[in-house]
Amino acid sequence: MNSNRNKINEFLNEKEIAVVGASRNPAKYGNIVFNKLKSAGYLVYPVNPRADLVDGQKAYPDLFSLPETVKAAVVVVPPEISEKIAGQAIAAGFRYIWFQPGAESETAISLLESAGISVIYGTCLLVRVSP
């Protein structure tokens, strides 16, 4: 339990966070997570290969396109896409990945942990971030 709390604290201490699956639709969790992080003061980068903008902010097609300073990402996509994101995160040198409930897959978690990346899953970011 303490280990997970430490991972969460380390993740939330990052100043820049990518949201993979950031959505233009305000009813979708990708949009809700994106805006919650923004309102909490984080520098947030939306990642969505099908959007140029998310809530007026430039969207990035993948983790490779982000500024090099971004090392943390919240993942809000189906598990089969999460597995592709895991490979991108490893190749791009990410340090922290947080899978929203429903986005995680055992394969993605194993790949990331084997690469030394801190992985959070089984808990919702929305209850951990204060605006």
Q: How would you sum up this structure, described in words?
A:
The protein is of the alpha/beta class. It has one domain: 3-Layer(aba) Sandwich (Rossmann fold), CATH 3.40.50. The protein is 34% helix and 19% strand. It is built from four helices and seven strands; from the N terminus they run αβαββββαβαβ. It has helices at residues 2-12, 29-39, 79-92, 106-114, and strands spanning 16-20, 43-47, 53-54, 57-58, 72-75, 96-99, 118-120. The strands form two sheets. Strands 2-1-5-6-7 form a five-stranded parallel beta sheet, with helices on both faces. A hairpin with a 2-residue loop joins β3 (53-54) and β4 (57-58). It is globular and about 35 Å long. The mean pLDDT is 95.
Question: Which features would summarize this protein structure in a list?
Answer:
131 residues; alpha/beta; Rossmann fold; 5-stranded parallel β-sheet; two-stranded antiparallel ribbon; 19% strand
Overall pLDDT score: 95
Counting DSSP E segments of at least 2 residues, the number of strands comes to 7
Helix content: 25-40%
The CATH class, by name, is Alpha Beta
**Distance from first to last alpha carbon:** 25 Å
- Architecture per CATH nomenclature, i.e. the level-2 architecture: 3-Layer(aba) Sandwich
What count of structural domains? 1
Shape, principal axes of CA atoms: globular
Order of helices and strands: HEHEEEEHEHE
Largest sheet: 5 strands, parallel
Biggest sheet strand order reads 2-1-5-6-7
CATH superfamily: NAD(P)-binding Rossmann-like Domain
